[in-house]
Amino acid sequence: MGVGAFCNDIEGWGPTSLTRPDLTPCVENTILLGLPALLVIIASFSQTIYMWKYGKSHNLGRANIIYWPSQILMLGNAVALFVRAGLLKDGDYIPAAMFSTISMAIAWLTVVPLNYYQHLQEIRSSDVIFSFYFFSIVASAINIRTMALLDQTNQDQFKAFVAYFAINILGFIVEAWPRGRTEAQRKSNASRYSKANLFSRISFQYLQPIVSSGFKTPLKPKDIAGMMPERIKTEYSHDHLNQLWQAQVTKHKARGTKPHLFTTVIKSFGWQWFPVLFFRFAASTLTYVLPQLLNELLSFIGSYKDPTPKPVSLGVILAFGMFFASLLNSICMAQYFLYVMNVGIEARTATIAMIYRKSLRLSSAAKQKSTAGEINNHMSVDAERWAEALPFMPMLISTPYEMAIAIWMLYQQISWSVFAGLGAIFLIAPLNGIIARVFLKQKNIKLAAMDERVRLMNELLAGMKVIKLYGWDDSFRERVGVYRRREVSSLRKIGIIFSFMSIMFQSVPLVVSLVSFAVYATHGGPNFGPGDITPQRVFVSISLFGMLTRPISMMSHIIAETIALTVASTRIQKFLLAEEISESTTDHLRTLPDDPSTPLIEIKDGLFAWEQEGPEIETEKEKKIREKQEAKKHKQLVKEARKAGKPAPEKEVPVEKNYGPTLMDINIKVARGDLTAVVGRVGQGKSSLLNAIIGDMYRRQGSVKVYGRLAYVPQQAWIVNATLKDNIIFGNEFDQARYDHILMACGLLPDIAMLPAGDQTEIGERGINLSGGQKQRVSLARAAYENADVYLFDDPLSAVDAHVDQHLWQHLIGPTGLLKDKTRLLVTHAIHHLEHTDRIIVIKEGRVAEVGRYNDLMEAKDSLYQLITEYSVNQGRARKEKSAEQGDDDLSDEDGMTEDGGEKEALAVVQKDEKAELVAEEKMELGSVSWGVYVIYAKAASLKYSLLVVSLFVIGQAVQIGTNVWLKYWSSVAGTNRHTIAEFLGVYAALIVAYMVLNVGSSYITMAIAAIRASNRLHDLLLTKMLRLPMSFFDTTPLGRIVNRFSSDIFSLDELLPWNFINVFLCATSVIGTIVVIATSTPIFLVMVPPLVVIYLLTQTYYIRTSRQLKRIESVSKSPIYQHFSETLSGVTTIRALGANERFIQDNAGKADIAANAYFSWVTSNRWLQVRLEALGAVIVLAAALFAVLSRNTLDSANVGLALSYALSVTQDITWLVRSYCDLQNQLVGVERINEYASKNPEAPAQTDVKLPENWPQAGHVEFRNYSTRYREGLDLVIKDVSFEVQPAEKVGICGRTGAGKSSLTLALFRIVEAANSHWAKASHNGADSDADPAKTEKTKDLEKVEVEEDGGSIWIDGVDISTVGLIYLRQHLAIIPQEPTLFVGTLRENLDPFNELQDADLWEALERAHLKDHISSLAGGLSFKVSQNGDNFSVGQRSLICLARALLRKTKILILDEATAAVDVETDELIQKTIRKEFKDRTILTIAHRIKTIMDSDKILVLEKGRVEEFEAPQTLLQRPNSLFYQLAQQAGEIKHSE
């Protein structure tokens, strides 16, 4: 059968009818009705078979109210069609109509079983059935109209088809009916997306409930829970990517090459790229359908100047064609963004998980190279790039495709002249490559500086207390400033690059159009004569050049994003390829041996080191690269020093690392159930021995075998931000009896009684609201609760005072303690316990000097004997142990007050402040970002520049419109000889050059001047305020939250905000210009403007509340990831030793999933807006086109062309404007968050104008007068009405039980805490911040009742009230050796003298007096030796000695020692005390000590109890009174000789 016979119609195949503007009946029957039916038959048949074979019932019940009507109506459709087929056969038979009718009838029959399985296994309508309904209704409506035009309405087959159409509409209503209330959807846990039908997913209607509720009340994280698809979750995304990555690593290792993370991630998404590319190309194609339709519309309007105009219906069809093309383009773009964002978020989630898991496995050498700041940046900045930059990647393929279509269509308009224009692009292209290279280089420098800055910020915030105590604020501000200046210098270069890139990318289309029109006007016609410049040709070309603008101008952004993404993934890749800890270092068997005599710890011929055997062998090429980098670095340092007006630094001498072993010839056996003590002097390798057993060191030879489960207590207690109970249980099953027993054994019951919520009290980050002793006991309780077989204790008794030490020994560690049957290895300096251990190991210079029982070693009269005889009062005698009852009585007196900057409630905030803060927060959340935030940013950028930028953008847009108006004028007077072609081109070229100059100027001022000035000002403001905030702020604010502001928020200020402002200015000026142009060309269009503006503004206002709140939830959801991450990095040894890796990995995954879900919700809400705005844009196009059709007789083609070419671009411009404006508001949240911290109340002034005596303090006379203090407003007093006087050069020992307020007294001297109810105590108080969880404050409502109005008294030094002295002056004129010895990354010289004021000779002298000179001399580089993070390359004891050297360098009259020698052995302690007595004999010394021996020779002893002074007399006097508190403490410490 031929086509003619098949169609059996005078109009034939067509496809368009010659008699009317329509498709032929034959095409409608086959393409519109028959073809979709055939596709549905195939799809429904295959899907039904699949569901029948593999599908599983959801068992949630069937929605019969939808199921039965839908089945009946589908069968009704089939019956109506079969009836029509019968009627067709009886009449004038048309095979095409019969084909479509039978196909559709069969299709409806095949979807009936599909619908059955759909209701059984799925909880939403079938996409196949839904699509079929929709297409068949649209196609049937077109077919019914055609039959009506052809006068077939009286035929029976027509009536049957209309009946089918009616049943179809009913069926569609049933199929599309929302199913949210059905039992199946109510019971299901599926995400909103999974429950939505096809229409809801295309239009993003499933987000409507969230947008509506966000408009009414601020959204909370729980409102958006479970939004994202399953495959984005860490569990799936990490496993999938990690598997491929490990395979790549193995494959490349075998080849000796490096794997590429970037390509691995791209490949890992496989088929997921298909829908992404499909929608991208569909959208690109549809974009270019519009100019074709515009061409047709202009020729339609032009036809009204001819005697035979085209029918009006054609104009209306073309107008609606433009509308639907625009709408479909918008739907495809929205789906493209949805799919590509899913891929991006999945990549981000997977890389975060890989970074986290890798950080748990880093070897000790790799840890030195990757600082916490760097790893944090990999997570907060680099992994983030995947989600932000991936949507631009497919455009690398689609952009050339779009350009090719535009060029082909331009060729149709202005023939070969377009290639002359393209020549201009190719001439500029090489510049692009150069610019990209420079950009990549600057991006790397910027990120490296940012890494260093964030690392330093992490360190600075963690050591804030020490920085305040030493008065080092300025030094650290300068250090951060060095890296910030590097960042800003790179940012400025990037800004300059971009302002020139903008010539290329925003002005290129104008340059191309100039060259093309110039060539066309002069040589573009037949035989290279002048071309015919008509309005139709000019405006279709302008519209195409405008469309060419978008891909070309996007190219700079796409290239920049791709470069940024490759840089980020290379950085992550380098980290993922870092060396891992070897699992084979320790042979660890989790079960106990059958033979009880087998030792549970055995080391044979052990040789251990912290570094690998030797330096990595460097090739000649690598050496040259390194030397080049070092020279470059030195050059930069010299340049920076010159700028800062400082002397140029000396060239760094490459420091030879010490690759020698730390422990040698280690042979140890620890029997089951034994208590083995490890003793030795500072820095001899005691802690390293425990690390070797855990497997943290390199084992160069020998073997380590450990049986049973391991528990480890580090020297510096590691506490997680959780409740006290969770810190102890640590993820194990809860056993009440065991838990209670452990609390008693660790002496924690009295502390818990004092905490506001008992053991449910939340402990802040790093244990900030616990004293040093309390932290250590929580750490011990955690280990005890593990119920392990082997316990490794790293000097846990040094942090507690004598009677607590006694209690822990008796009830937990010692021979009668809870762990008496366990194998215990105890590093200790407490020599009075040695006689009660089973074995003693003496470590000397990294070797085992002695091993044996106490009595045997005493008889051997070697190093242990010497130690005991010299330093123990009761050597050789078994001391009388205190009875358990008495020990408990002593403990029950203990006060739960904390010593060191903590307080008693859990990160709590006084309730009234919380309320005040919340009100302000709500006001901000309900509106858009307040204008105040814009003003803050504009002032930071300078109002002069802000106004200049806006003016330049407005003038630029005016000039751009001028170019098109000039073209319109040219096309309307072409051929009249009014002007020469040279005149036309001259004006056109002048306008384009002006536009280019304005473009560069506006970009340069925005990116390279104003934005950098703003982000710099805000960063400096935030940093200055951080260093001036009171300590109480850091006690209640998690580190992650502050770091988030210095990393993510500053990054958004540096790199995202300027782009957003440029986008908003460009789009806003473009939209206003467009409205002006359309209104002047077709004034009737002005009728549409007011309602459209109102609708746009309403949509934007409606959406912005939800969007801002979602962005806020997303910003806040990141902080817990960073916080958990910093916490993990500081406790990685403990996590590994306790085998808690898996649990921490799960915690991290949970937090990452919450953040990913928040990001997904925010991104999808953008799609909701996009679809609605672009639908409105399509309405504008429709209106403009319809007005043109209606005014066809009064308008000329030039005006219509100008108006419609602008209308086509305005849809995207308006959408981009609203999107950019919303993005701008979301990015301004960063400014708001920075300003929030920058507006906090600072502590007292750093300097005051109070006149002080010369060389104050010149004597060192200290007097406390009725002094009271608390850690923050609203809390209980920690020091209560204390009065005492210390005479010049007097030595006072301060002692008391844990939590008695000893450290609080020293903090008061430095004004870290202020006198209660004093002016500065109130003025420096801050409420909660906006990230704080209001729920946490519920626990501490009772604190509101604390209404204390007593006067806090004062402290006087040499006759001056210290509350009148500037803080920096005060702190720099007192010296302290703090409780926690803190070192910072940098050289040893910088750690001793951060202001670079002293000579090296002074530093060496101080080190010699601190007994460290020999050790430091042996290190590579001496004073230039690099201190690693947290000072990890020094033992805790050595760190204490470095702090002593710092104090020796400060020639002040008052010295405070806060547990300064707790971490050193008794021998070193004795030497230090001698040094102090000799060097500081003319100075006033206040010494807090747990070791009573340390303060025995003081002039006076101050005994504190519950924050009050109990005793203040000479030690000899107190020791003569057996009922004195000091006597009891001395007796417990074994410092009082027993009478015979």
Strand content: 5-15%
Query: Which strand order spans the largest sheet, edge to edge or round the barrel?
Result: 6-7-8-4-9-10
- Tell how many strands the DSSP assignment holds: 22
The largest pleated sheet is described as: 6 strands, mixed
Describe the structure.
The protein has 1540 residues and is of the alpha/beta class. Helix content is 61%, strand content 8%. Helix 28 (802-813) links the parallel strand 7 and strand 8. Helix 2 (25-54) packs parallel to helix 4 and helix 18 (417-462) packs antiparallel against helix 37. The termini are far apart.
Quick structural overview:
This protein is an alpha/beta fold and 1540 residues long. 61% of the residues lie in helices and 8% in strands.
Jot down its keywords:
single chain; 1540 residues; alpha/beta; six-stranded mixed β-sheet; 22 strands; 8% strand; elongated
Which helices and strands appear, and what pairs or packs with what?
Blueprint (H helix, E strand, L loop, with lengths): L2 H5 L17 H30 L9 H27 L4 H27 L5 H23 L6 H21 L6 H5 L4 H4 L2 H6 L4 H9 L17 H22 L5 H8 L4 H30 L9 H48 L4 H6 L2 H18 L5 H20 L2 H46 L1 H7 L2 H51 L11 H42 L10 E3 L11 E9 L10 H24 L19 E8 L4 E5 L6 H9 L3 E10 L2 E4 L10 H6 L6 H10 L3 H6 L17 H14 L4 E5 L7 H12 L9 E5 L11 E6 L2 E6 L1 H7 L2 H9 L12 H9 L18 H16 L4 H11 L1 H31 L7 H48 L2 H6 L2 H43 L7 H42 L1 H6 L3 H50 L6 H42 L23 E8 L9 E8 L4 E6 L5 H8 L9 H5 L10 H4 L16 E4 L2 E2 L5 H6 L2 E3 L8 E2 H5 L7 H10 L3 H6 L7 E2 L8 H14 L4 E5 L7 H14 L4 E5 L3 H4 L4 E6 L2 E6 L1 H5 L5 H8 L8
Parallel strand pairs: 1-5, 4-8, 4-9, 6-7, 7-8, 13-20, 13-21, 16-19, 19-20
Antiparallel strand pairs: 2-3, 2-5, 9-10, 11-12, 11-14, 14-15, 17-18, 21-22
